[in-house]
Design goal:
2 domains; about 270 residues; alpha+beta; five-stranded antiparallel beta sheet; Beta-Lactamase; about 10% strand; MLTR_LBD; 434 Repressor (Amino-terminal Domain)
C-alpha cells in the first residue's frame, strides 16, 4: 500500500468514526486495540490489515457497500458481492420479498432499494398509491418518496401532508447521515424544495389518540388512515440484499381495515 492509500483509508475510518460520534478511545475499546493504533490508522502512519478493516467496519456499522469501498481504499479486494436482484443467487431473496408482499394483501406494501426506488409492489400498493400520479413519475425507476411528496404525485391526496412530509424528510435525513450516500443527499435536497401548503412540524408530537405518525390518504369520498413499518433482510452478506427495504402499510383505524378487507382489488 502506498502512503496515499494509507491516508485515504485513514480518512475513511475517521469520517465514519466522526459520523458515528465516537472518539478514538471509544472505537479502540470496541475493537480491542489501543487508541494509539486507531490514531495511527487514521493518520496513515500504519497500514491496517484486511481483518482490522473489517473489524473497524463492523464496530462502526458501515453499510456493506461502503465496507467494500473501505477495503478497496486499503488495497484489498471487496468481500461482499453485489449481484443484480435478477441474479439466480438472489432467487431466495426475491421469492421471500414477493411472499411478504403478497401475504400483506389486502394492505399495500412495497419493496425499495437504497434510494427508495420501488423494486416490487403488491396489488394493493399499485392500486392505491398510484392513483392520480403523473405518468412520468411512474416511469421506472419509480421513486416512492418522490411520488409521495410531489404535487403531481399523491401528495394532493394526503390530508396531513405537512405532518407526513416532515416525517418522511426526517427519516430520509437520518438515512443520509447513517449511509453517507450522496445520491440520497441529492434526493433529500430535491424533495425539500418541493412545495407544501401545510405547516410542517419541527418536532413530531402525537395528536389526540395517535401512537404513530399516520398517513391520512383521501380516496374517493373517504379518508383512509395508515401507519407503516420498515423491514430489512436480517442477515445479509450481499450488497443488494442488504439494501432492500420492505415498507408495509397497516390500517390505523377500524374503518380503513374494514374498507380494504371488503374491497375487491381490480384485476391486473
Amino acid at each position: 500500500m502506498t502512503s496515499a492509500q494509507q491516508s485515504q483509508v485513514g480518512a475513511l475510518v475517521r469520517e465514519w468514526r466522526t459520523r458515528r460520534r465516537l472518539s478514538q478511545l471509544d472505537l479502540a475499546l470496541r475493537t480491542g486495540v489501543s487508541s494509539r493504533h486507531v490514531s495511527f490508522v487514521e493518520t496513515g502512519r500504519t497500514r491496517p490489515s484486511r481483518q482490522m478493516l473489517l473489524r473497524l467496519a463492523e464496530e462502526l456499522e458501515i453499510p456493506l457497500r461502503e465496507r467494500n469501498h473501505l477495503l478497496l481504499g486499503g488495497g484489498f479486494a471487496p468481500v461482499y458481492p453485489e449481484r443484480s436482484l435478477d441474479a439466480p443467487e438472489l432467487a431466495p431473496v426475491r421469492d421471500a420479498v414477493r411472499q411478504v408482499l403478497t401475504g400483506h394483501s389486502p394492505y399495500p406494501a412495497v419493496a425499495v432499494d437504497r434510494h427508495f426506488n420501488a423494486v416490487e409492489t403488491n396489488r394493493a400498493a399499485r392500486w392505491l398509491l398510484t392513483e392520480g400520479v403523473a405518468a412520468d413519475l411512474l416511469e421506472p425507476p419509480v421513486n416512492t418518496l418522490r411520488c409521495s411528496l410531489h404535487p403531481r404525485g399523491f401528495a394532493p391526496r394526503v390530508a396531513n401532508l405537512g405532518e407526513w412530509r416532515a416525517h418522511l424528510l426526517g427519516r430520509l435525513r437520518r438515512q443520509v447521515h447513517v449511509t453517507g450516500d450522496e445520491q440520497l443527499g441529492a434526493l433529500y435536497t430535491e424533495l425539500r424544495e418541493l412545495p407544501c401548503t401545510q405547516e410542517e412540524p419541527e418536532v413530531e408530537l402525537p395528536g389526540p389518540g395517535d401512537v404513530v405518525v399516520p398517513l391520512r390518504l383521501r380516496h374517493e369520498d373517504r379518508e383512509l388512515s395508515f401507519f407503516t413499518t420498515l423491514a430489512v433482510i436480517g442477515t445479509p452478506l450481499d450488497v443488494t440484499a442488504a439494501e432492500i427495504m420492505i415498507e408495509s402499510f397497516f390500517p390505523a383505524d377500524a374503518a380503513t381495515a374494514r374498507f380494504l378487507q371488503e374491497f375487491h382489488l381490480p384485476l391486473e
